[in-house]
Structure formats: C-alpha cells, structure tokens
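In response to reviewer comment 3 from the previous cycle, which asked for concrete evidence that the modeling workflow produces usable outputs, we include below a single protein chain processed end to end. The sequence was submitted unchanged, and the resulting structure tokens are shown without manual editing.
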Amino acid sequence: MRALPERDQQHMMYGITGTPGTGKSSVGEELSSRGYTVVRLTETTEPYRLERDEERDTVVIDEESWASEFSPVEGFVEGHLAHLLPCDLIVVLRCRPDVLADRLMRRGYPGAKVRENAEAEAIDLILIECLEGFEARQIYELDTTDKSVLECSDMIEMFVRGEIPPSFGEIDWSDYLGTSL
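The workflow returned the following structure tokens.
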C-alpha cells in the first residue's frame, strides 16, 4: 500500500476512478471549471497501447509501464485507471448497476460491454483494486447514482480538504448480480 505522505495539501495528486459511466469525466470537467488542474488519463495512454481486444471491445494498454512513467501532477487525475497511480488520495465513483447500464446503453456501448461493466460495478471491482493499493484513510467511495455533478464535485472537494472522512464498503450492489442488466 502507498503510505499517505506528509505533504502540504496544495502539492498533492488526487485520483478519481471508477467503472465507465460513473461520472468521472463530468466531475473532472466541473473540477476543472473550478480552477483545479485535471488530467484526463485517457489522453495519456496512447504510447502504451498494445492492441485492440475486439472480443471485449476495448484497447489493451501496458498499464505497468504507463503507471511507472506517469509524471505526477498537482491536482486531479481522472480515469478508470487512476488508482494505479501513486495518488495521495483516491475517490472511487460508484453507480447502481441498472442506472450504470442505462447510461452505457445511451452511449452506444454494445450489450456485452454494458453487462461486463455493470457486473464489474456490482462486484466492487475498482474498489477492491483500490483497497489493494491504498490505505483506508486515503479512500473515499462516492455513490453518484442520485447526485448531481455539482454535489459530487462539492463532496470530493470536502474530502480532499479533510472536511469529510474517508469511507468505503457501505455500498453494496451484489443484489444486481445475475439480473438482466
């Protein structure tokens, strides 16, 4: 696990991660409009692309090389791989799997990709990966299902300022496993 460094809060890198469709890009845009530096990680992976997995409808990147060569920033890094970086704090955006599936279908995701992502959300995949790499005091899990982008951005700001405590493990989507999403 990465230890939480003793640093001035103004010189920290905060990660925003989560399953596709949970609101990372929208929250990133809002935080950027509030004056924060926000790096969209999808814009940093091009040199690390290995192949296209047609069956899973995804691009495979060399995550290890990408993460080891990533230059830390002061501000936010946003993307579903943010938790692979040495962030000082990490926010895991969550969304109820049926709502997530609807969002992804409206984006034009193929049915198999929608199911794969909704199931990943239902089994807490990203949160589990965060727990493997971060201390509990570094993680904030945020359910975006019924919250606006403004509310989510406000809560993230409060977390990074230390005004609300870390939290995780209170969201349970396991009832959605095996349903037709």
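The two ends are 34 Å apart (CA to CA). We consider this sufficient to address the reviewer's concern, and the full set will be provided in the supplementary archive.
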